[in-house]
Amino acid sequence: MSLTSKSSVSSQDTTRSIIVTKVSLGLDEDTILRSLGHNYVSIDKVSRRYARDGQPIGSIQVDFKSDQQSMKIIEQGYILIDGKQYPARGFWPLICHRCQQEGHYASNCPKNPLTEERFNELIKMQQEQFAGMMNSFEAKWNARLSNLKTSSANSNMEKLVPIFKDLNTVCQQFFQQNGQMQQQLGSMVSRVQGVQTKSSNQ
To answer: How do residues 16-69 score in pLDDT, each as one tens digit?
Structure first.
């Protein structure tokens, strides 16, 4: 695996962003940011999320300056806003594999046109990311299972909890990665069809 691929896989293991749900529309971003600042020193930004029709929804994206605090929140499954617990899960922002910037797919990257060689490279990188996530989870799973003792059922159950949390995180990553990959491939197909249509009209 190339150095670029390793970096991509590593960036998917942790994240500085989380999605918080069941947040009242009456709470604006500045109010939430100030409240979070009391408990989370590495808080960076709060962004309200919107539906496709442009209407705000009861979810926010919270970004941190480091991944330590965000990963702890993901493990807990909640975040505190004004002393109240809100459901929280990890969010892995869309990152272009070509320029490493957020917010667009490699197929729409303004840096360089998409070639067949680059297309195949992107598909390979996606596959390596999936494999990396599975290998990382499998390693944690095996390590924790090896520490289980047959003498205490209660102790074993306590040790199984973080394993299931890891599995939940991996499932979230797979779901998000799958959605991003489908959109990316759809964008590629649209561009190819556009080129074909343009060529036919000439």
So the answer is: 999 999 999 999 999 999 999 999 999 999 999 999 888 999 999 999 998 899
pTM: 0.50
Highest CATH level, class, for 14-91: alpha beta
Q: What are the structural domain ranges in the chain?
A: 14-91, 106-201
| DSSP string covering the chain | --HHHHHHHHHHH--SEEEEES--TTS-HHHHHHHHHHH-TTEEEEEEEE-TTS-EEEEEEEEESSHHHHHHHHHHTEEEETTEEEEEEEE---B-TTT--BSS-GGG-SSS---HHHHHHHHHHHHHHHHHHHHHHHHHHHHHHHT--TT-HHHHHHHHHHHHHHHHHHHHHHHHHHHHHHHHHHHHHHHHHHHHHHHHH-
